[in-house]
Amino acid sequence: MERPSKNDDRTGVGSSGRRAFLGGAVVWAASAVAAGAIGAMVTAFRALGRRGTSAWETDGAGLDGVIGAERLGPGVLLRSTAEGPRAWSLRCPHLGCTVIRTADGFRCPCHGSRFDDQGNRLEGPAPEGLAPLPVQRVGTRWRVRTREGGA
Amino acid sequence: MSGSRLGGVGAWIQGAWGRGALAFLWMAVLSGVALAPFWRGGQARESLELLDGGLPWGWWIRGLHVWSAEGALVCTLLHSLDIVARRGEGRIPPGAWTRSVLLLPAMVAAMASGFLMRGDASARAAREVLRGVLATIPALGEFLATMLLGTDGDLTVVGLQHAGLWTLVLVVVTPEHARRTWSDGSALAFALCLSAALAGLSSRPLDGLPVDGEVLRGPWVLWGLQGLLGRLPAWTGWALPILGVGGLALLPRVRRPWARRGLLLALGLLVLAWIAGSLEVVGDGTP
Ligand code: FES
Predict the structure, then answer these.
(1) ipTM > 0.85?
(2) A54 by DSSP, 3-state: which?
(3) Count of structural domains, chain B
(4) What is the per-residue pLDDT for A7?
(5) How many whole angstroms separate alpha carbon B157 and alpha carbon B164?
(6) Closest chain B residue to A48 measured between Cα atoms?
(7) Are B231 and A125 a contacting pair at CB < 8 A?
(8) Which atom of ligand 1 is nearest to the CA of B125?
(9) What is the b/e burial string over B95-111, where b = at least 16 CB atoms within 10 angstroms of the residue's CB?
(10) What is the pLDDT of residue A14?
(11) Do A95 and B129 touch (CB under 8 A)?
């Protein structure tokens, strides 16, 4: 078998080494750009999930001054109490199913977590009670903030 | 009957599940194409109600779609069991085996996303449960949940993943695995007749808000998971399926008989846990 001369060999190694170096640099640069792009996408998606504040509004008629009166909104329960209006999220703190109002509290139809009338956890896989939501008076209406964060 | 004749019949029966899976898959794809123009991501439930009650044969085509998808999954599961029981995984190139194993979760994902597209109470609950499970994946969880399930009430993203991602994967990888695009005439006729009959005989009603005492369990392909999530932490919802699929994918590389038996035992236990989770009534239903 013919052996390449030292000179040929050195030239070959040199040029393939440069090529390998450039190739490696391109791969690393592309990986860095891809990682940056993925990072940016993840950040954008996370921000999207948390964006803004949502609210649900309802007329105060039938609630004002009627202690114990309740109204259901989308994923929200609003109750008139002696201390003022109170609201809870109906989203189960376990995995997010919407809980059902029962005679003495709330029950999650997905894995059976139970909550008392005040939204406190009684049993089941839910790690905590139903989240209380801030309620605001706006004229004759009540506004419940259903999602935190953002503006 | 001659030995060669018997061998031919045996081979035909052995291949039946695979051919059935391919036939049911095409039936599901074609009926899905017929349904697609009528489905609206922003009004998923209303569009299905229109299909069920307002369009001639709409309910039947929807039934055909659902039953043929379920037929494809059942045939694929039986085909996989048949292969493993005959130690056939060693005769398939490792890459081809891995791709074939990945067809199982792709099929479950296609069916689960199809179920979410109903937009009714069970589908909404299943979407929240899946979102909660995906969100526990470190670093990528929220991204994946948003990408696969969308962010709000609009189900367009789910529909896109159903038709554009999972179905595409199935339509590309299944024929590659089977080394043929279409199944044979008898399998196609069987798939069509069975799905058509089941679609005609049983409706797939949408459900409303559960009343007290009712439980929501999502699509049957996720029942076991739904049951297990009542007892196990949410991250097991993705870790256990990965373990199961990973174990099955590794099977041809496990050469020693005792190791193969051990792996099969572990996979069997996972399946048993899945079945136990499916049989458990989630939430005891007492007020
Ligand atoms: S989502 Fe409510 S108990 Fe699991």
Answers:
(1) no
(2) strand
(3) 1
(4) 46
(5) 10
(6) B151
(7) yes
(8) 1
(9) eebbbbbbbbbbbbbbb
(10) 53
(11) yes
Which two three-digit tokens encode residue A74? 């989308």
Of A41, A48, A95, nearest to B128 by CB-CB distance is A95
Kindly give the distance from the C-alpha atom of residue B233 to the centroid of ligand 1, in angstroms, as a whole number: 11
Instruction: Please name the amino acid found at residue B93.
Output: P
Interval between CA B17 and ligand 1 midpoint (Å): 37
Instruction: From the CA of A112, give the closest atom in ligand 1.
Output: 3
Average pLDDT, rounded, for chain A: 77
Residue B276 lies in a domain: yes
Tens-place pLDDT, residues B246-257:
999 998 888 888
Averaged pLDDT for residues A87-108: 92
- B229, A96: Cβ pair inside 8 Å? no
Q: Are B135 and B147 in contact (CB under 8 A)?
A: no
Let me know if B235 is exposed, middle or buried by CB neighbors in 10 A (0-12, 13-18, 19+): middle
Q: How confident is the model at residue A68 (pLDDT cuts 50, 70, 90)?
A: confident
Query: Are A112 and B282 inside 8 Å of each other by CB?
Result: yes
Q: Domain containing B173: what range?
A: 14-205+215-284
pLDDT digit string (tens) for B22-35? 999 999 999 999 99
Res A86 pLDDT > 80 = yes
Q: What is the CATH number of the domain that holds B24?
A: 1.20.810.10
pTM value is 0.80
The rounded radius of gyration (Å) of the Cα atoms in chain B is 20
Within-domain flag for B163: yes
- Structural domain contains residue B8: no
The residues of B whose Cβ lies within 8 A of any Cβ of A are 124-125, 128-129, 131-133, 139-140, 142-143, 145-147, 151, 209-212, 214-217, 226, 229-231, 234, 282-284, 287
